[in-house]
Amino acid sequence: MGGVLYNSSELPTFTLTGLPGLENSQHWMFLLLGPLYMVSIVGNGLILFIVKGEQSLHQPMYYFLSLLSVNDLGVSLSTLPTALATLCFHLKKISFDSCMAQMFFIHFFSFMESGVLLVMSFDRYVAICNPLRYTTILTDSHVVRMGLWVITRSFCMVFPLPFLLKRLPFCKANVLSHAYCLHPDIIHLPCGDITINNIFGLFIVMFTFGLDSALILFSYVLILRSVLAIASREERLKTLNTCVSHLCAVLIFYVPMVGVSMTARYGRHAPRFVHTVMSLIYLFVPPMLNPVIYSIKTKEIKRRLGRMLVGTSF
């Protein structure tokens, strides 16, 4: 593990890993990931096409859904090049700058998704707890500001990461654990002091995922309290049904994230490919399931999608 010591003028290359221990059969893995990529790209593209073309969907809820679809497309397209090269063509080398760029976009879109889910929970809170003021609170200008806040916050959180890594010396084998570049994976490779990196990494995780999940939970506590005050059982169920799609999106984003963290902390004796599979679930499943869930549970989108399918069948 000694290797060569690199400095900032001689940046290292990294070696990507597909499925540790399953190198001879990992190309079959892309037979699974390929359809996931296809569903994600086509599904989120259809969501954007439908929202843009359907005048009745030009509302805050669907603007936020469009932002979520753009984000999911970003996640898929950020991981696709190296996953395809590593799993199918066994091209495992990646330059330092390319790795930093991929790491930036993967984490940028991950933080952005957390922020989008937060503003979507605020949309549901206003729609259910203060419906008479919905149009005055969530005006087009406010929606744009919220979207810009989500994007700006994500950029500011991720932007320092490549520079904090570039200042460190690398002298190990520089083998990554995945088919793409992730900060928690790269941070174990430098030979220098990574205290600042660890502190900053913990800060951005708490300021994004930690804060967002707490606020989402708080918004649903308020929503549930408001729903329970409705006298009619049918009205309560009808009101809660408007939150099902968003709740599913929250669960499929945060549950795999918790699973990855728990596996990293307590699954040290598990086979290495288990960690890789967990990270694949975290990065690949939400972008694939989000458009499916919203297409099934949102009747306006389902109706328009049905008309498109009927139209293309003739």
TrEMBL record:
<keyword id="KW-0552">Olfaction</keyword>
<dbReference type="InterPro" id="IPR050402">
    <property type="entry name" value="OR51/52/56-like"/>
</dbReference>
<feature type="transmembrane region" description="Helical">
    <location>
        <begin position="63"/>
        <end position="84"/>
    </location>
</feature>
<dbReference type="Pfam" id="PF13853">
    <property type="entry name" value="7tm_4"/>
</dbReference>
<dbReference type="GO" id="GO:0004984">
    <property type="term" value="F:olfactory receptor activity"/>
</dbReference>
<feature type="domain" description="G-protein coupled receptors family 1 profile">
    <location>
        <begin position="43"/>
        <end position="294"/>
    </location>
</feature>
<comment type="similarity">
    <text>Belongs to the G-protein coupled receptor 1 family.</text>
</comment>
<keyword id="KW-0807">Transducer</keyword>
<dbReference type="GO" id="GO:0004930">
    <property type="term" value="F:G protein-coupled receptor activity"/>
</dbReference>
<keyword id="KW-1133">Transmembrane helix</keyword>
<keyword id="KW-0812">Transmembrane</keyword>
<keyword id="KW-0297">G-protein coupled receptor</keyword>
<keyword id="KW-0472">Membrane</keyword>
<feature type="transmembrane region" description="Helical">
    <location>
        <begin position="28"/>
        <end position="51"/>
    </location>
</feature>
<keyword id="KW-0675">Receptor</keyword>
<dbReference type="GO" id="GO:0071396">
    <property type="term" value="P:cellular response to lipid"/>
</dbReference>
<dbReference type="InterPro" id="IPR000276">
    <property type="entry name" value="GPCR_Rhodpsn"/>
</dbReference>
<feature type="transmembrane region" description="Helical">
    <location>
        <begin position="273"/>
        <end position="294"/>
    </location>
</feature>
<keyword id="KW-0716">Sensory transduction</keyword>
<feature type="transmembrane region" description="Helical">
    <location>
        <begin position="244"/>
        <end position="267"/>
    </location>
</feature>
<dbReference type="InterPro" id="IPR000725">
    <property type="entry name" value="Olfact_rcpt"/>
</dbReference>
<keyword id="KW-1003">Cell membrane</keyword>
<feature type="transmembrane region" description="Helical">
    <location>
        <begin position="199"/>
        <end position="223"/>
    </location>
</feature>
<comment type="function">
    <text>Putative odorant or sperm cell receptor.</text>
</comment>
<dbReference type="GO" id="GO:0005886">
    <property type="term" value="C:plasma membrane"/>
</dbReference>
<protein>
    <recommendedName>
        <fullName>Olfactory receptor</fullName>
    </recommendedName>
</protein>
<dbReference type="InterPro" id="IPR017452">
    <property type="entry name" value="GPCR_Rhodpsn_7TM"/>
</dbReference>
<feature type="transmembrane region" description="Helical">
    <location>
        <begin position="143"/>
        <end position="165"/>
    </location>
</feature>
<feature type="transmembrane region" description="Helical">
    <location>
        <begin position="104"/>
        <end position="122"/>
    </location>
</feature>
